[in-house]
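call fold(seq) -> tokens
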Amino acid sequence: MKKLLKWIFICGVLGVALLGAGLITLKVMYPPQKLKAMAVSYAKDNFHREIAFDKVSFNLIGVTLTDFALSEAETFAQGTFIKADKLQVKVALLPLLQKKVEIRTVSLDGLAVNVIKQKDGSFNFDSLLAAPTAQQDAPADDSASTDEALGLDLTAGQININNCAFSYKDLQTGMSAAVNKLNLKIRDFDLKKIFSLKIQFTTAYQEGDLSASVPVTVDTAVNLANLDLPQAYVNIKAITAQYKNMRFLLKGQVKNFAAPEVDLTGTLSGLNQRTFADFLPDLPEFSLPEITVKVNAAADLDKSTADIRQLKLAVLNSGFTASGTAGWGAANPVYQVKGNLALHLGEIVQMTSSVADFKPEGEITGSFTATDKKDGKDVSGSVVLKNVSALYDVFTLKTLNGTIKITSLDDISCPVLTGLFNGEKFTSSFSYKNIKDVLNLGLNLDLSKLTLDKFPAADEEQAGEQPSAQTQAAPAAQDGSQMLMNIKANVKIGAIKVPYFTAEGFNINADLTRVSAAMDKANGQVDFTLQPGAITDLDSLVKDTKIVKILLLPITLVNKVGKALNVEIFPAENAAKKGQITFSSAEGKYTFVNGVMNVDKTSLVSKLTNVNGSGTVDFPKNDINMKVSATVLTSQTPIVMKITGTLDNPKGKLDVLNTVGSLVGGILNYKTPGKMVSGTASTAGNVATGAVKTTGKVAQSGVDTVKSTLKGIGGLFKKSKNAGAESTPAK
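ret:
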């Protein structure tokens, strides 16, 4: 035994001596200056870049490299691609005799890597990837057999990477991102066993004036399975990220590094409008409860595809689930996904106070299928509304029930939708189709009664004076981006009671194409009817509701021109009803041709005045050319007006010939004794003081009546101090 120990001691001494001698020989043959010169030459010849370092040293326990740097492109004058303050590797000597590489510590300090995407789309490391290496020149089989023959075990007690940084800059977009303050710690590294991996870093993003910084921590356990990739896996104990008040936590497992399979669960908390204040400053106030995301998927890296077994997002009792496939190998991503949606509207109030006033209730459920076809708009499925209720301004919707069918994002319809609108029953259907950027809208509505105490509040940008039709059309004409719509609508409403207006019934049918806000390209037809009712304030009615302004445009124009001419078109029944128009019926029929509205028929029958009109409203030119007759029923006296000018500034004048002709015709055909023109004179502001009051036999005073009437009408041509209308007789 003593002899054996002696020989072991002698062999050990000899081994150490040989290693020492070998190390001395290496130092003599390859001093630091020579090693530095060899490294510089190799980098220049193979990578066409400059390399620099302060010194390299090695001894019995390891190698140390300090102040290492690799240039951008060919020289450091163009910048630094990679640099490191210090790299140190310490190994155990005796395990090498057993073909084991036992690394005690690996330390890397101050590593910095700068990646740049050039304006031509290339990267600053492309030349490195293309550079020849000895490994590339050697046969792969020989390399593999060599590794197998060596059978080396690689272990490391500690691997520390401290204060490192990676930056990325896209010169095409101006976007930049970085990973700073990266610290990595590995304990008990072993190719065959599980080991601990912890990482800390801070991400930084900047594009224009927007910037964000997010600290991230990673705590995992890794098993490389001796580089048997299908057997390798990583257990994610926790990956956390925080931005302002938002915190993200991810747990789970990734296995099979050859074809990764993920089973992950993430939670997102503290998400509110302050989170996005730097990017979206106009977001309303909201605060979401914890969001849970689960992902179970498998990827085929060779085929660049993924099988999404389950994707689930949940917030309280609401959320959606999905499954399908996705691929990223082509120029554009491909996918085919099926999913289900469940949304409890009452829970939204818990997420944001901005919807509290809407008081949403009910459930929305649905299913869908989505593919990458049709520019990402190939989504089909259905959405079911169940007892949905909500408030909006002056509108109350309750117990909405129906199914919305989605053929694609450009084709959405609802065959039947029922519910209560402001407490009254309604039945409706609607459709939406986008065909070559032209919206095709359809609406059918049957509402038993409409009651409003006030009209909805105007949008902030619409508050104050409304722009003219010509002004409205200008922006669209400049950029040529008007949104065009084709509209088919059939609306039937029973009793109506809204501000300034009541009616026992209202029907409207519209079939229009190429409709825009400016109405300058519209084609088609609109007709409507009104049952008995009253307009208490015409000016306020058409001012507050845009659609009413279009429907009652001829009535509005004749009323406006009448006021300018001091002609009271709609006299009051009594003092209490001054300014009120009480009608037994009203109807209109308008035909649109390339933005020109032809007033085929418009009429309003009131207790005191009948109004009939025809003509055109040219929206492209903002031009009016209409003829309106207003007949005061108390005297059967018609007044004929010609209306020209613009929508904002209509001008009117009496059509003398037609007015007189109507008067004469009325006189000659008048068979009942009574007033003939006194009512006309009165409604014209009593300007016709010489108007004849005829009684008895018309035939005896016909000529005198005509003369007196002409004299009275002549008074109407006297320009009023406040009138903006023309006062010259029409020829």
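The chain has a mean pLDDT of 76.
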